[in-house]
Amino acid sequence: MIDPLQFTRGILGTVQNFTLMVFRAFRYMMVHFRVRESLLEMDRLGVGSIPIVFLANLFAGLDMALQFSVVMAPYGATNLLGKVVATSVIRDMGPVLASLVMSARVTAGITSELGMMATTQQIEALLVMGVDPVDRLVAPKILAGMVMLPVLSVVGDFLGVLAGLAVAMFGAHVPAPLYWSGVRTALTLPNLVNGIAKPFVFGFILVSIGCYYGLRTTGGAQGVGRSTTKAVVYAAIWILVANFLISKLLIDVWGWKL
Amino acid sequence: MIRLENVTVAYGSRVILEEIDLEIPTGKTMVILGESGSGKTTILKCVLGTLHPVKGRVLANGQDISTLNESDLLRFRQRMGMVFQEGALFDSLTVGENVAFWLWEHTSLSDEEVETRVRTLLRFVGLENSIDFKPSDLSGGMRRRVAIARAMAAEDPAFMLYDEPTTGLDPFTSKSICDLMRRVQREFTTTNIVVTHDLTDAYRVGDLFTFIKDAKIIATGSRQDIEHSHDPFIKTFLSLDS
User: Fold this and answer.
1) Which of A252, B19, B121, B189 sits most deeply, having the most CB atoms within 10 A of its CB?
2) Which residues lie below 8 Å from residue B3, measured CB to CB, with a gap of 6+?
3) What is the pLDDT of residue B30?
4) Contact status, residue B217 vs residue B192, Cβ threshold 8 Å
5) Cβ atoms of A186 and A135 closer than 8 Å
6) pLDDT higher at B177 or A258
7) Distance (Å, rounded) from C-alpha A90 to C-alpha A21?
8) For A130, which DSSP code?
9) Closest Cα in chain B, distance from residue A218 (Å)
């Protein structure tokens, strides 16, 4: 039986500790920027994730173009395929898909790495050596996530649009120039801001949640497994929540413009 | 000098240490003995400042650790070396990088100067040839040696804390680690606290001995004082080990 008081206290405690960790990480980014560690993390988080983000966006672009062409063909609207595919990919599918795929790879990787460090007293060793783990481990990772996810997302978006072109040309018989002119009309400021702001926030979410649960791991190998599962699930959920909130915010700012 | 004054540590209603008074003179080694779960490691955590007592004070060279804020604590710990039970080496770094870590973080030495210091420290613990190895390539004894070298990387470590430094090692390796700990104390005049449950190793490294039972200190003194104790727990502990 869950004690509501204890449950509420647990949630408030988590929010407080998470906020403190994030606040400290941003303070370290400002006052004690670690260039070498940040570049290393960007390489590990970003460059290492290129193949899976590419694959995910490629098949998502193919599938989306296929589904849209089936729906649009009866209305003779397949000439709008480029605009529809590009808008969907840039505004929503690209960032969300890249982030969800990355959460499986990056969040799980970070949590298990920090979790193992916590259970083998390596985190304690850092503290004893006068080094704050948030400074050495968390801040460079968060920064890398916030920089690399938008980059991966943009490249992934391009691949998704390119995959859509293949379906448009060979499935829906839409000429390439017509498809590309549709894509060009989708490259509006609201869409581009959507496409960059979302992965920026998602990058923060998936890395910071991974770091938080990693650092708080206890209980050996089983504890590492538990923390990793928790971090991946929460990261995925918060990415979807943030996606809706950012969409709503940007629609409120720009209205129903595409 | 390290001094614990009337220190009580508790997690909720569970008392881990109760009104502990302990003094470790400068340059001496205090060995803390007791059963598993008796609160031995908690004393180390209080001295490190990773755990704050609910009552009492922890003084290191006159400075009250329990009142320091996070950044002052990080600075204070720079003069402290800690050797963990399994070494707690950073497994993503090589042996040399592990030892160099403190120097990278807290000094502006050039790469050449760092390497010279790292080689000196590794030579001191007899592992200069393992500088490029990863911790996973090392035996338990070698890992403890690297941990000692890493703990000494600070230019002038004032305090060395050892948490079960010989647990899981064979008798020969245990003796060599104890000899190394003695050398560190002699050559660097450090004030040491060693937590162990192994009496043979305790006698090898210790100047003073403290027994903890049920969160309380039941005896403190020299080897003679301990051996002549009439406390039934200490008598049993000594007889079981012999």
Assistant:
1) B121
2) B22, B23, B24, B57, B58, B59
3) 95
4) no
5) no
6) B177
7) 31
8) T
9) 15
Biggest CA-to-CA distance, chain B:
57
Question: Rounded CA gap, B25 and B225, in Å?
Answer: 17
**Residue extents of the structural domains in chain A:** 39-254
Q: What secondary structure does DSSP assign to B16-49, as a single string?
A: EEEEEEEEE-TT-EEEEEE-TTSSHHHHHHHHHT
pLDDT at A187 over 60: yes
pLDDT in tens, A18-31: 999 999 999 999 98
Cβ of residue A43 closer than 8 Å to a chain B Cβ? no
Residue B93 to residue B113: CA distance in whole angstroms: 19
Choice among A90-104, A205-219, B62-76 with the minimum mean pLDDT: B62-76
Sequence letter at residue A8 = T
Closest CA to B78 of B113, B110, B112, B102: B102
Closest CA relative to residue A155, chosen from A42, A63, A54, A47: A54
Backbone angles phi and psi of A131, in degrees to 5:
-120, 125
Q: How many CA atoms lie within 13 A of B129 on its CB side?
A: 1
Pick from B75, B88, B89: CB nearest A130: B75
The answer to whether A122 faces chain B, any CB pair under 8 Å, is: yes
Of the partner residues A116, A122, A130, the one whose CB lies closest to the CB of residue B77: A130
> What digits encode the pLDDT tens for the residues A68-108?
999 988 898 888 999 999 999 998 888 998 899 888 899 99
Can you tell me the distance from the alpha carbon of A229 to that of A111, in angstroms, rounded to the nearest whole number?
9
DSSP B82: E
Q: Any bridge partners for residue B63, and if so which? A: B60
Q: What is the 8-class DSSP label of residue B207?
A: S
Q: Do A128 and B80 touch (CB under 8 A)?
A: yes
Structural domains of chain B, with CATH: 1-79+192-242 (3.40.50.300)
The pLDDT of residue B130 is above 90? yes
* Partner-chain residue, chosen from B76, B84, B101, that has the shortest CB–CB distance to A121: B84
3-state secondary structure A45-90: HCHHHHHHHHHHHHHHHHHHHHHHHHHHHHHCCHHHHHHHHHHHHH
Q: What tens digit of pLDDT does each residue of B178-199 get?
A: 999 999 998 888 999 999 988 8
Q: Number of C-alpha atoms within 13 angstroms, CB side, residue A89?
A: 34
Q: How far apart are CA B137 and CA B139, in angstroms?
A: 7
Q: What is the pTM (predicted TM-score) of this model?
A: 0.87
Q: ipTM of the predicted structure? A: 0.85
Least confident of A109-113, A225-229, B33-37, B130-134: B33-37
| Phi, psi (degrees; rounded to nearest 5) at B23 | -135, 130
> Parallel, antiparallel, or unpaired for β B159-163 and B14-24?
unpaired
